Structure prediction request, 176 residues.
Amino acid sequence: MAGIILFAALGAWFMLALGVAVLVAKKTIKERWGIPLSVFIFLIILVAPIVDDIVGSWQFNALCNEHSDIYIDYEAAKGKEVYLADNSFIKVNSSWVGMSLDPWRYLDAETDEVIFSFYLITRGGGYFSRFFTSGGFPVFSRSSCRPDEIVSVFEFIESIGAAQIQREELIQRNDK
Prediction:
């Protein structure tokens, strides 16, 4: 049912954009620039509901490229137990859609030194996405990114020679 409503809305929007373009064409048909203006207006009206999602995708990809590095202390990682430190996300205010940087820092369970860290970057969708998807996820691009080396955090921790410990277990161990 949602698909039918979506296609009906898209069809109505297409017809509206086409109707406005035809009206402009009728008024300016005798002018040399009339048809190109009508095509331009049609395209602008057609993409208007998703322009924030498109620009947001460009901004998101740029942010992902900027924060694609991962910090790793290979020597300190070998044979150590690491845990995920408490982190608070950083809201990106200069974007067309909601984006946040979530720093993931894994610390040595004994010394609390950073063993490795990276950013998980998430984004929401534009107005169109928020209206037509539950949760407001982007329709035209991915909603999160992290460094390519981190496919699975657990496998990555094993690959650098460390072992993960849950924070609760670490707290219990330190309380004894």
